[in-house]
Amino acid sequence: MPSLLTDIPRPVRRTLQACAGLATLVLLFEGMRAVGLLPTTSVPSTGEILGALRTSVVDGDMVSAIGYTVLAWLLGLLVATAIGIPSGIAVGLSRWADRATRSAVEILRPVPAVALVPVAIVLFGIEVPMQVFLIAIACVWPLLLGARGGVRAVDPLQVDTARSFGLGQLAIIRRVVLPATVPAMVTALRLSASLGVVVAVGAQLISGSPGLGSLLVSSQNAGKNDVVWACLLVTGALGVVINLLLASAERGIAGWQALSTEGRR
Amino acid sequence: MTISTTTSPAPVLLSADGIGKTYVGEKGAQVEAIGDVSFTVAEGEFVAIVGPSGCGKTTLLRTIAGLLKPSRGEIRFDDKAVRRVPDGFGIVFQEYNRSLFPWLTVRKNVEFGLKDLPRQLRTERAAEALARVHLAGVEDQYPWQLSGGMQQRVAIARALATHPRVLLMDEPFASVDAQTRINLELMTAEISAELGLTTLLITHDIDEAIFLADRVFVLSARPSHVLMEVAVDLPRPRDELATKADPRFLDYRRTVYDAIVHPTTDTTPIATTIPRAEVLT
Amino acid sequence: MKAPTFRSVTHRSVGWIFVLVLMGLWEIAGRRDASGLFPPLSEVLTETLEVLRSDALTNDILPSVARALAGFVLGSAAGIALGVVLGWWRALEPWTTAPLEFLRAVPVPALVPLAVALYGSTDPMKVGIIALGAFWPVLLNTVDGIRRVDPGYIESARVYTSGSSFSILRRVVLPAATPQITTGLRIGLAISLILMVVSEMFGASSGLGYLVLQSQRLYAMTSMYAGVVILALVGLLLTALFSAVEKRAMSWFDGMKGRTS
Ligand SMILES: Nc1ncnc2c1ncn2[C@@H]1O[C@H](COP(=O)(O)OP(=O)(O)OP(=O)(O)O)[C@@H](O)[C@H]1O
Ligand SMILES: [Mg+2]
């Protein structure tokens, strides 16, 4: 039976469904306010939130908060990648290096990065570098372990194939091991990226270092609840953009992996 | 016996000299895969090695290729001991779908071994190799977008593109359908003859071995040794129907089959050369 | 016989030697530091032991561990439950993707100030925040894991089981998705630990996190580092606990696989 929904072309239908989902979320929020699950005294309405978003964008607070957060996040990820990926590849390639460092990694990895906020303040003060330090510490582990796992999972037959063409160690690493590891690294990067946002906002909240987290706190202290909610809206939107970018990068770069394993079944 | 009429044989290009391989596992468990294998391959010859599953054929090929160090004995190529993969070897692996690089297009896969050549020459070589395996027009696809038989041909083209002197193939046609298999066999025979390649084909298919080879080595079960060596005297070019209906083909087939099914209990390696006259009688 | 034993011993100890070298470096750096900002490891560890022997253990540390554990378990359970629903009934996907993508993108620490304002710095609030942190990664990985189960498994399950959605889900889909759900749990645990610290450091007037921050403000470096070490130990403990449970669960899972096949 042809229904109203199936007659609409797929992309349009998808968009409509997504909008309907988001609208339901807004309705749910307003409903909870109306019923009293969320106190109307401290929780502003959707209209008020959007209004606050507009004014805080216009007066520049929001823009600079986003700017600082994105800057710290980017630099932190960059540092974590620069350290984590090469070390991960090294311990993936060398059993010896792996054995030597494994215990240290096992001990350091579970340390929650925000526990180091006081240390970071002592070392770096409360500006952006301190956030970069904490984000890098949190994100280095998934990247290191992702690269290590990727290198470990390289098919030995592919290495043999390269050897059969007379390639030496370095050429094999460059032309076979690295490309084969790219999907694992991109996945690790996606994981680190959302972890990085969590750590950035957490560190800003605790230390007052500039960014969305501290804007949130200062607005709350000033009694501007609508700005607080606008901050939440913006962090959510920021997260969505980051996730979408990285997910499409993952599909683009690593598309062959998903498809080739599917093809092998 | 008319031994005097045999033309002087081509020089030996590749030889295995008392090869043995014992795998040592993590906990010291030992698997003796190859017992004692020796043979020689002459320049331009097509040699097939048959043996039951698990007898160490892949192990032998990897040893010949210099990918695996033998526990005993030595491989010699061009009168030099093989320690790593020598220049001039092309290898087609048993699990071809795993040996093709999924992040490279078909063209890039075929060009993989040509890194040192200028781009122009690389492209030409790749095109030539793909044409030889009757695969044109898929250059820009990825290997995993192709069928099994096509993937296998890409793997063969990749080995051919380097213009090897020796082509080593490990059960290259084991996992394709019967029709594709026949096509690939004919194609292999044609390429080897045209390029004058020294070819070593590993297979567990007796018919395929006899159909393609000048000589067939029959391996015993693990730990393997050469049970028998059969010189195949069938006219070339070989033909799917005519060759396989030739009474000599059927004789070779029975001989090899008997050797595999009723191997002598004697464990010392024996190499029975069956001269042509004997088989014909 | 002697040589391999010797080798395996060195293999195992080389990792610990590296750890000891790192600790030694901390000690030396601490002793050479004149600024007073970087106390040697020995002093920090002495202080740590002292804290662990004081009543801070029962007053601050164990409650932290309990909250983290409770939040992680609650959040994961909710994540798996909702994940199964969303992963299995695909018709829901187009409607739920956009709102969920938005909600999960809000970093959970950002909710802490609001939660403190609405509910105060209470235990249920902290547990709730920790739970929410674990919830998202577990949910996403469960949904993804279930959607990726090879359709071939599901088809053969339809043939060999009673064919009801429930039994297919329980006997085939969930086991097949287990590895990815486990991945989600591991990420969830890491985020739970971060939130444990955030919820203690933000707006609290007691607790371990509060003590650490307070020491930093007072420039009491040794007790600050001791607090950080204790927080690290809590993370280590909970991660080790998780690995142990995972190992047991997985061996049970492997055993089951072995029996039925
Ligand atoms: N890396 C290895 N470590 C230990 N044992 C191995 C290893 N590779 C192969 N073997 C063992 O050596 C024997 C020969 O294996 P091989 O793969 O060479 O056999 P094959 O003749 O190629 O078999 P098939 O016809 O199935 O391809 C088998 O018993 C196998 O279990
Ligand atoms: Mg084999």
TrEMBL record, chain A:
PANTHER family from the UniProt entry: ALKANE SULFONATE ABC TRANSPORTER-RELATED, MEMBRANE SUBUNIT, TAURINE TRANSPORT SYSTEM PERMEASE PROTEIN TAUC
Coiled coil: none
Source species of the chain: Nocardioides alpinus
PROSITE patterns found in the cross-reference section: ABC_TM1 (PS50928)
Membrane topology: Multi-pass membrane protein
Cellular component aspect of the GO annotation: plasma membrane
TM regions (residue ranges): 71-95, 107-126, 132-151, 184-207, 227-246
Keywords (A to Z) from UniProt: Cell membrane, Membrane, Transmembrane, Transmembrane helix, Transport
Protein name: ABC transporter permease
One Pfam family matching this protein: BPD_transp_1
Localisation: Cell membrane
Domain ABC transmembrane type-1: 66-246
From TrEMBL, chain B:
Gene Ontology terms, MF aspect: ATP binding; ATP hydrolysis activity
Membrane-spanning ranges: none
Species: Nocardioides alpinus
Classification via InterPro entries: AAA+_ATPase (IPR003593), ABC_transporter-like_ATP-bd (IPR003439), ABC_transporter-like_CS (IPR017871), ABC_transporter_ATP-bind (IPR050166), P-loop_NTPase (IPR027417)
Signal sequence, renumbered to the chain: none
Domain of life: Bacteria
SMART domains: AAA
CDD domains: ABC_NrtD_SsuB_transporters
UniProt keyword annotations, A-Z: ATP-binding, Nucleotide-binding, Transport
Domain ABC transporter: 14-246
Protein name as it appears in the record: ABC transporter ATP-binding protein
Pfam families hit by this protein: ABC_tran
Organism taxonomic ancestry: Bacteria, Bacillati, Actinomycetota, Actinomycetes, Propionibacteriales
Automatic annotation (TrEMBL), chain C:
Cellular compartment(s): Cell membrane
Transmembrane segment boundaries: 12-29, 68-89, 187-212, 224-245
Record's keyword annotation contains Phosphoprotein: no
Keyword Iron: no
Recorded superkingdom: Bacteria
One matching Pfam family: BPD_transp_1
Domain ABC transmembrane type-1 span(s) in chain numbering: 61-242
PROSITE patterns (UniProt xref): ABC_TM1
Keywords: Cell membrane, Membrane, Transmembrane, Transmembrane helix, Transport
SUPFAM superfamilies, per the entry: MetI-like (SSF161098)
Membrane-protein topology: Multi-pass membrane protein
GO biological process: transmembrane transport
Gene3D superfamilies listed in its UniProt record: MetI-like (1.10.3720.10)
InterPro entries assigned to the protein according to its UniProt record, in alphabetical order: MetI-like, MetI-like_sf
GO cellular-component term (any): plasma membrane
Family: Belongs to the binding-protein-dependent transport system permease family.
Protein name: ABC transporter permease
